[in-house]
Amino acid sequence: MSTEIDGVGVSGDVPETPTPPPGVAVSTRGLRKTYGPTVAVEHVDLDVPEGAVLGMLGPNGSGKTTTIRMLLGLVRPTEGTATLLGRAVPDEIGHALPDVGALVEGPGFQPFLSGRDNLMRVAAAEPRLDSADLPAAVDAALERVGLAGAAGRRYRGYSLGMKQRLGLASALLVPRRLVVLDEPTNGLDPAGTRDVRALIAELHAAGVTVLVSSHLLAEVEATCTHVAVLNHGSVVAQGELDELLDSGSATLTVSTPDEERALESLRAARIAARPAPGGVSVDVTTTTPPEVVATLVRADVAVYEVQRARTGLEDLFARLTQGDHEEELP
């Protein structure tokens, strides 16, 4: 069987879309996209749990935006399958999109219309808004993103940050089950960035699933519950943010007033340790946290608290995307 995708003939059977795992808002299996000889996305397997805030990270050219465009039905995949809110993509995308708000590759509006008039045009295409409800929905969205005072100005006079805010408003005209944001803080000043962070937190608290593509690691670490890291078109790590950060470290921080005795007992047990503020830092590469605690207790060392030292997202990202990585995170 032969089919045509984006004008390119592809041989073989069209894969049957699998049933998405329970509790998953977005799921892909073997998702692949090529443009001639160029591979943009290479067999991406991705699961976004319902109600999660997932940060999609990756260097430029890693396939983030192409993956998002395939999920939204803007680009047909060369291979693989995807589901969006339980609907097959792209065949059933029309049933899912009313529940999806998206800002992808920056907003596109008419430059000579005002912000409000541009948003009214978008609102008129919303299947769940009656004509009588359009003005109220538009005003509420403008207020939500901090553009109420500039709603009457022409779009061409907007700053980059204001244009980004108007794009966010268009994604939030009606309640959504899933919101997809591609670089949502692009062009925003620190105050605008804080507003977006608060908006994402508000959506999360309401049970909305949020998929965020960003290069700002600090923002992802502050706002996201889950992370997927892409490199060279493939997912090299995904999962809960806390678990990924914990898994990247082999160090314990032990809070104790008996620092010297703690160091002596650990070193006598051939466990690498060094002084740390308020206690000691212990390398658990060749041991386990329970063995560290047992060693200290046997030596009558007072142990107040034990924590696994966390790898920063920046360090984790660098380790996953720079060079060849033989070890994989869960």
Automatic annotation (TrEMBL):
The keyword Nucleotide-binding applies. InterPro entries: AAA+_ATPase, ABC_transporter-like_ATP-bd, ABC_transporter-like_CS, P-loop_NTPase. Residues 1-22 are annotated as: Disordered. One of its GO terms (molecular function) is ATP hydrolysis activity. Belongs to the ABC transporter superfamily. Residues 26-257 form the ABC transporter domain. Keywords: ATP-binding, Nucleotide-binding, Transport. It comes from the Bacteria. This is Multidrug ABC transporter ATP-binding protein. The keyword Ribonucleoprotein does not apply.
